[in-house]
Write a structure and sequence with these properties.
Blueprint: H1 4-23, H2 31-43, E1 48-52, E2 55-59, H3 71-79, E3 89-93, H4 99-108, E4 112-117, H5 120-132, E5 138-141, E6 153-158, H6 170-176, H7 182-190, E7 195-206, H8 212-215, E8 220-230, E9 234-243
Parallel strand pairs: 3-4, 3-6, 4-5, 6-7
Antiparallel strand pairs: 1-2, 7-9, 8-9
The structure holds S-adenosylmethionine (SAM).
Length: 245
């Protein structure tokens, strides 16, 4: 026997604790961050097109832009390192333009991809991007899981709005803001009823927001990737993988 498996477990635990410590240092009130956020909001108002993982993704105004450096591209880059089975049923909540779900569908040739969003503009963009990239999907307008018929999914993905403030407009609030982590809290509470017995969920968390609903939950989670961005403030974001068991 060598000591490697337990050393690896110890390093993974240390990394997890370090990421959690960084996530706990909220930057949502930093004045420079809020200035950058206002610019970010303005950029979302202009229609743009992106190539994401080989798919052509149109983002109309007020549909979250899957730009380079966005949480869409950040989360997708880590999700693409995971093993998905062709037979997996995959649900993305808050699908936006579809950049993430269509990226996964393109790589893993998934049999079932369902995207939901609370925003009609996002659902229309997702449906149109799926068609133009010749990827078969289904979609529904829903506040988290509320409008979905009961079902357990093999994979659930959520890149939620992150910033812990109330947006100045309904569009800004929907795309980018989760005041107090209320949306993440509802996701964490409802998730177990929607995951298959060996299912997995992936959710983005950041110190832009309130990650405590996940960090304080009893869910079995670990991080599959994290990124630290140092500017006037230290921005941390991570993709958590939650296992049903
Ligand atoms: C940060 S964007 C991510 C969009 C897309 N998943 C991506 O990664 O490019 C967050 C998305 O969540 C959606 N959203 C916000 N509140 C929601 C809710 N209560 N239920 C479902 N979707 C919601 C927004 O409309 C937006 O499309």
């Amino acid at each position: 026997m060598n000591g490697k498996p337990s050393r690896n477990r110890a390093s993974a635990k240390m990394a997890q604790t370090a990421i959690e410590d960084l996530l706990a240092k909220s930057i949502s009130n930093d004045p420079q961050l809020l200035k950058n956020h206002n610019l970010h909001v303005k950029r979302q108002a202009v229609r743009k097109q992106y190539n994401v993982a080989g798919n052509n993704i149109e983002c109309p105004s007020h549909v979250y832009h899957a730009s380079l450096g966005s949480s869409s591209q950040f989360s997708l880059s880590h999700l693409l390192t995971q093993e998905f089975r062709r037979t997996d049923s995959v649900l993305e909540l808050g699908v936006g333009s579809g950049a993430v779900l269509l990226g996964l569908a393109g790589k893993f040739n998934l049999a079932e991809c369902h995207g939901t969003d609370i925003s009609t503009a996002s659902i229309n963009a997702f449906s149109s991007n799926a068609k133009s990239n010749d990827i078969s999907v289904s979609q529904s307008i829903s506040d988290l899981f509320d409008a979905l018929p009961p079902k357990r999914y093999d994979v659930i993905v959520f890149n939620p709005p992150l910033l812990d403030i109330r947006g100045k407009t309904a569009e800004e609030d929907m795309m980018l803001c989760d005041e107090g982590g209320a949306l993440l809290q509802r996701f964490v509470q409802q998730l177990p009823q929607w995951l298959a017995p060996d299912g997995k969920a992936y959710v983005v968390v950041s110190n832009l927001g309130n990650p405590y609903p996940l960090l304080k939950s009893k869910l079995n989670y670990s991080f599959i990737g994290a990124e630290v961005f140092i500017a006037d403030y230290v921005l941390v974001r991570a993709v958590a993988k939650i296992c049903a068991q």
